[in-house]
């Protein structure tokens, strides 16, 4: 096995998993967490919410505490308790986008 090929493949796989889990440029916290729960499920922590925070709103240090205060102790609870206003649908809706990068408010997507 050629070492440089292995390194290339590893780099490509790393890129791929990053592309799958990276929040969209203007994707809101709620739509991102929902999308990740759909793909990977909840592991009982705020794994995706914190990942979104680290990449999109690194200065929102109190975010996890605020979510927990509102009943969001893990990613699925964030969706059920913190952002319950989501269109009743079995299909994920594309995020309507937040106006400003780093904004922790959910996008305008909601029930009519
Ligand atoms: Zn959960
Ligand atoms: Zn959204």
Plain-language structure description:
The protein is built from five helices and no strands. It is mainly α. The longest helix has 19 residues, at 3-21. The radius of gyration is 16 Å and the shape is globular. The model has no long low-confidence stretch (mean pLDDT 90). The structure holds zinc ion (2 copies). One zinc ion binds at residues 28, 30-31, 95-96, 106-107, 109. The site of one zinc ion has 8 residues, from α2.
What layout of secondary structure does this protein have?
Blueprint: H1 3-21, H2 29-40, H3 47-56, H4 63-69, H5 75-82
Q: How many H/I helical runs? A: 5
The total strand number stands at: 0
**Small ligands present:** zinc ion
What percent of residues adopt helix (DSSP H or I)?
Answer: 40-55%
> Into how many domains do the coordinates divide?
1
What amount of the residues lies in strands? under 5%
* Overall residue-averaged pLDDT value: 90
Rg estimate, integer Å: 16 Å
- General form: globular
Protein name: DUF2695 domain-containing protein
InterPro entries: DUF2695 (IPR024248)
Pfam families: DUF2695
Organism: Phytoactinopolyspora halotolerans
């Amino acid at each position: 096995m050629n070492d440089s090929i292995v390194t290339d493949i590893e780099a490509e796989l790393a890129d791929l998993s990053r592309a799958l889990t990276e929040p969209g440029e203007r994707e809101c916290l709620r739509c991102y967490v929902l999308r990740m729960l759909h793909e990977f499920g909840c592991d009982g922590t705020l794994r995706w919410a914190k990942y979104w925070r680290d990449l999109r709103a690194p200065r929102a240090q109190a975010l996890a505490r605020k979510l927990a205060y509102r009943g969001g102790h893990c990613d699925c609870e964030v969706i059920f308790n913190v952002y319950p206003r989501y269109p009743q649908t079995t299909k994920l809706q594309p995020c309507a986008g937040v106006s400003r990068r780093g904004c922790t408010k959910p996008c305008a997507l909601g029930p009519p």
